[in-house]
Design brief:
single chain; 12 helices
């Protein structure tokens, strides 16, 4: 059964923090009381929509509705939250669709979301939570080129790309330190590198104002791949020999996912738990 495929999930514990504390955070945020910045609130919301606890999911949906109006984190007219089902298949599908829709509609916050996920990764209490954090990221990573193609020059693009790559590598290293789910979490993190390497600007975000420059897009795509390879090789050639297998796997997954795309297979997010 799918909800048994993630081990070490303790249904007696809330996925990140106690329900009482989560309730307080959501209440304060909803009342515009200082406590959470909007990006932290969004990551918290995406995480807890995947919680096995009905109460935590309900609080996450309350947070989502607050952010929809206060920060325009709107999943779209056709989206409906799963509020009653106790089936992981249903509430996880709804949660991942929420992540996909917000990423598609608000790509400008992609770097901040990545930084927050990396920060949350050390704070969450279970392997289940860490796996969820990795699973909500593909749609955000895919939008990275939408962000960089809004930049005016190559220098700004290179700086943002480097910072993003460093954070993704940090997340991959953290995944490799998982106590019980190391291989699964590493595989999920490796696939994120493929999503990044294949990232393309979403043209709907260039329909108004400055249009998408095709020459700049090609230049930035080459820069992205170049920066990924350069950074991974720099880690491989450093004194951190324990990172060699990780570096090799990153490059292998990028090549494999490029082949998948060439063969016409859509990557997408992996929603199977």
């Amino acid at each position: 059964h799918q909800n048994n495929k993630i081990t070490n999930r303790n249904d007696k514990n809330v996925t990140m923090i106690s329900l009482a504390y989560l309730t307080s955070l959501v209440s304060n945020f909803s009342q515009n009381i200082v406590g959470l910045n909007p990006i932290s609130a969004l990551v918290l919301c995406m995480l807890h929509q995947c919680s096995p606890h009905q109460q935590a999911r309900t609080l996450a949906l309350r947070l989502a509705k607050t952010m929809k109006h206060a920060y325009a984190f709107n999943p779209g007219k056709g989206f409906s939250f799963e509020t009653t089902s106790s089936s992981p298949d249903k509430y996880l599908q709804s949660a991942f669709k929420y992540s996909e829709n917000i990423a598609s509609r608000r790509p400008q916050i992609v770097p901040q979301v990545m930084f927050e996920v990396v920060r949350f990764y050390d704070r969450v209490e279970s392997e289940y939570d860490r796996e969820i954090l990795l699973r909500i990221l593909p749609w955000w990573v895919e939008q990275f080129s939408t962000v960089t193609n809004k930049l005016k020059d190559v220098t700004a693009c290179r700086e943002m790309t480097y910072a993003f790559i460093v954070k993704l590598y940090e997340l991959t290293i953290k995944a490799g330190k998982s106590a019980n789910q190391k291989q699964k979490q590493l595989t999920l993190s490796y696939r994120l590198w493929g999503h990044l390497a294949l990232s393309q600007p979403d043209e709907k975000h260039f329909e108004h104002g400055r249009r998408l420059d095709k020459h700049r897009r090609n230049e930035y795509n080459k820069l992205l791949l170049s920066e990924i390879v350069k950074y991974v090789i720099s880690r491989y050639t450093s004194h951190f020999s324990d990172e060699h297998p990780i570096c090799e796997k990153i490059l292998e997954h990028i090549c494999a996912q490029c082949k998948e795309k060439k063969d016409g297979q859509r990557l997408g997010g992996d929603t199977t738990l």
